[in-house]
Amino acid sequence: MGTFESVVLLALLHLDNRAYGMEIREEIERRTGREVSYGAVYTALDRLEVKGFVSYTLGESTPERGGRARKYFRVQAAGKAALRAHRQKLATMWKGAERL
Questions:
Q1: Is the dihedral of CA 14, 29, 94, 88 positive or negative?
Q2: Lowest-confidence pick of 17-26, 53-62, 80-89
Q3: Residues with Cβ < 8 Å from 84, sequence gap 6 or more?
Q4: Quick check: helix, strand or coil at residue 57?
């Protein structure tokens, strides 16, 4: 799992594990101070879904969205396990480099 994918998963967890793409994007920007494109978020969500790390449910369709429904994403158990493994790998890499 890449760093940006882990950031997307963490943002989703911070949003009580139910959010749509724009909310995830805003959470990432708020927490990191980094501008993120919608496309980057949705590309990461697509990859995470293929890996079984997230799933989604459809909300109500709304006229302001042209009748389209929002996808509300949630982190699955496999996604949480992947996050823990990613954190552990980073912690291992940081051992001995803390002085940086």
A1: positive
A2: 53-62
A3: none
A4: strand
